[in-house]
Design brief:
Layout (H helix, E strand, L loop, with lengths): L2 E5 L6 H12 L2 E4 H14 L7 H7 L5 E6 L2 E6 L2 E2 L7 H10 L3 H17 L2 E5 L2 H5 L5 E6 L2 H14 L6 H17 L12 E4 L5 H13 L1
Parallel strand pairs: 1-6, 1-7, 2-6, 7-8
Antiparallel strand pairs: 3-4, 4-5
Helix pairs in contact: 1-9, 2-4, 7-8
The structure holds 2'-deoxycytidine-5'-monophosphate.
Length: about 220
């Protein structure tokens, strides 16, 4: 099996560009953020504070996370329910950042992610794929862009979904998540030593895709 690990901050284009790259390569695109988001949605629904590690940990045994790969992409199931679109709200984003800092949550999801890479050629995106989940990945990429351009892209995405948010708010949430994701103790967001950096600040979608594919194809 061949594994491409892509890590980087929120909104660097991982979900859009990485998904297109996986399609082009004929690989399964694994969006690990969506898996963490599914846990966070359950935590919010149970009325539990996502920062309360013991309370979140206590919920884990009752959570069944399901993934399906359809022509439209990755479908997320929470105890059987399709939650693919429900996990994309700003509220879930912030809760996910908190839940994903909890070591028990990361341990709970580790094997699930490794199993996917054992059974499929994958392009897996997240925060700790090249550093923790798949340290032996064939190719490691650190995909990044300036916070302002990432906020602008996220605003466009939210607008297209019919749930616009003010730019300043999106930018400050991105900065907050960058900080939280890179300063937590367990598996913080950082560039693997052997990762190739792809900075998409100055690149449009097509250019970002070409840059990513060029790294994978060597
Ligand atoms: O990629 P995303 O924006 O959907 O990720 C949502 C949150 O999940 C993000 O704040 C960090 C966390 N995350 C993580 O800790 N590890 C991963 N492999 C993927 C996401």
């Amino acid at each position: 099996m061949f594994a491409v690990a892509i890590d980087g901050p929120a909104g660097a284009g991982k979900s859009s560009v990485a998904k297109a790259a996986a399609q082009e390569l004929g690989f399964v695109y694994v969006d690990t953020g969506a898996i963490y988001r599914t846990i966070a949605l359950h935590v919010l629904r149970q009325g539990v504070d996502p920062h309360d590690a013991p309370a979140v940990e206590a919920l884990l045994p009752a959570i069944q996370v399901g993934l399906e790969y359809t022509p439209e992409g990755q479908v997320m199931r929470l105890n059987g329910e399709d939650v693919t679109s429900l996990i994309r709200t700003p509220e879930v984003s912030m809760a996910t950042s908190a839940c994903s800092a909890i070591p028990a949550v990361r341990a709970f999801l580790l094997q699930l992610q490794r199993d996917l890479a054992e059974k499929n050629n994958v392009l897996m995106d997240g925060r700790d794929i090249g550093t923790v989940v798949l340290p032996e990945a064939d190719v490691k990429i650190y995909l990044t862009a300036s916070p302002e351009i990432r906020a602008r892209r996220r605003c466009l995405e939210l607008e297209q979904r019919g749930t616009p948010e003010p730019f300043d708010q999106v930018l400050s949430e991105i900065q907050q998540r960058d900080w939280d994701d890179s300063h937590r103790e367990t598996a913080p967001l950082r560039q693997a030593e052997d990762a190739v950096v792809v900075d998409t600040t100055e690149l449009n979608f097509e250019e970002s895709l070409a840059a990513l594919l060029a790294v994978v194809r060597g």
